[in-house]
Amino acid sequence: MSSTKPRPILVMKFGGTSVANVERIRNVAQHVKREVDAGYDVAVVVSAMSGKTNELVAWVKDAAPLYDAREYDAVVASGEQVTTGLLAICLQEIGLNARSWQGWQVPYETDDAHGSARIASIGGEGILKGFAERREVAVVAGFQGIHTPTGRITTLGRGGSDTSAVALAAGLKAERCDIYTDVDGVYTTDPRIVPKAHRLDKVAFEEMLEMASLGAKVLQVRSVELAMVHNVRTFVRSSFDNPAQPMPGTLICAEEEIMEQPVVTGIAYSKDEAQITLREVADKPGVAASVFAPLAEANIVVDMIVQNVSADGKTTDITFTVPSSDYARAVAVIEKNKDELGYTLLQSAQDVAKISAIGIGMRSHAGVAAKAFKALADRGINIRAITTSEIKFSVLIDVAYTELAVRTLHSLYGLDAA
Ligand code: ASP
Ligand code: MG
Predict the structure, then answer these.
(1) 0.90 cut: is pTM over it?
(2) Ligand nearest to the CA of 20
(3) Is any ligand 1 atom within 6 A of the Cβ of residue 40?
(4) Does ligand 1 lie within 6 Å of residue 223's CB atom?
């Protein structure tokens, strides 16, 4: 009868705005049908309807400020259960075989870090059987998993359905993973700030990792890490396109796949930063450790760190940044250890922003950052701190200059669309 050659597998992921109501879910079904008709076996990963997870989280917090994290997961995982069932029904309505799969049914095995669980392994045998025997589209709940030893439902952290999708693509050995969202790809910077920003055809995993962690909120950072480790070719594309005429979106892929590499690929910014400076800390071995170890223990991620060379050989200043949401906790941790650290003054600023330029081309070009410092100075923008790595540099500035700084760097590196 039919040939025995297995069909290629495609994972498609649709975020909250793409499944916001039944009409939008019908539109998603048309995108899925197009790919089934093109000859793929399709697994679709869905988020909850937009706003749903926020509502569920608020209910939990209303029920008890210090809630049981296992029950938080039981509640917030429910949003995805609804959309899997609805999409399966809409697919059946247009003549496709389809069924829903909850995280525990796939299964996505995770650890027991409720609220931010990590995936340990993925099953997927049932999904593959459905492909082979019934050409059945698998509609999979993103964001959720199961901790098998306790038998409890877990969730992967906010935005986690991107990670669910990439993990499934790796687990099923899919040809690629298409992440459908409300933007048509990854841009050189935020188009709301720079109208001349343009969509990138391709971005290297490493660059996307930097962009995602620096505030370009297209993809959850963990999903990019996973795509890089398993070399999953991942497209970011729009679900608002006409399903009959889809646009290509942006491919996130291995660096070798990108022929023409510009020096700078994108400019990212984050206003979610706070700066802390400790004045006159003793300049002796072990001081940096005693500042940063307690912060790490409190699970506070420190980003930029600047330490001066001491002028008198006795004391020095240390400046670092933390996420705004951790600012109060960070100050409390430092103050608790004041005796040991022996600083004379703690100064801080919350009205700061971090602007970063990213590009793997920086590896082979000198003076990329120096150019930026000059351009920012010419516009009267003061730089509070700088960090650099192989493929990016970041500057900390006053938040009021964010837009100007982003625009300046965007044109400086030739990213403005013609
Ligand atoms: N629904 C979850 C959230 O809003 C997971 C996701 O959409 O990625 O965070
Ligand atoms: Mg998302």
Answers:
(1) no
(2) 1
(3) no
(4) no
pLDDT in tens, 66-106: 999 999 999 999 999 999 999 999 999 999 999 999 999 99
Atom of ligand 1 nearest to the CA of 54: 4
CB of residue 217 inside a 6 A radius of ligand 1 = no
The confidence score (pLDDT) of residue 216 equals: 62
Q: Can you list the positions of beta strands (E) in 175-286?
A: 176-181, 202-204, 234-238, 250-253, 266-282
Atom of ligand 1 at shortest distance to CA of 143? 5
Q: How far apart are CA 341 and CA 212, in angstroms?
A: 34
Asked if 13 contacts 46 with a C-beta cutoff of 8 angstroms, the reply is yes
Question: 28 forms bridges with which residues in the sheet?
Answer: none
Residue 294 preceded by cis peptide, ω within 30: no
Q: How far is CA 290 from CA 293, 338, 397, 413, in A?
A: 6, 10, 27, 40
Residue nearest to atom 5 of ligand 1 (CA): 159
Identity of the residue numbered 11: V
For the chain, which ranges sit under pLDDT 50? Answer: none
Nearest CA to ligand 1 atom 8: 159
What residue ranges define each of the domains in the chain, with the CATH number in brackets? 9-256 (3.40.1160.10), 267-412 (3.30.2130.10)
Distance 15 CA to ligand 2 centre (A): 6
Of all protein residues, whose CA lies closest to atom 4 belonging to ligand 1?
53
- Which tens digits make up the pLDDT trace of 385-416? 999 989 999 999 999 999 999 999 999 999 99
For residue 320, what are the β-bridge partners? 276, 305
Distance (Å) of CA 229 to CA 109, 205, 225, 339: 18, 9, 6, 44
Nearest bound ligand to the CA of residue 46: 1
- From the CA of 157, which ligand is nearest? 1
pLDDT tens for 195-227 read: 999 999 999 999 999 888 766 678 888 999 999
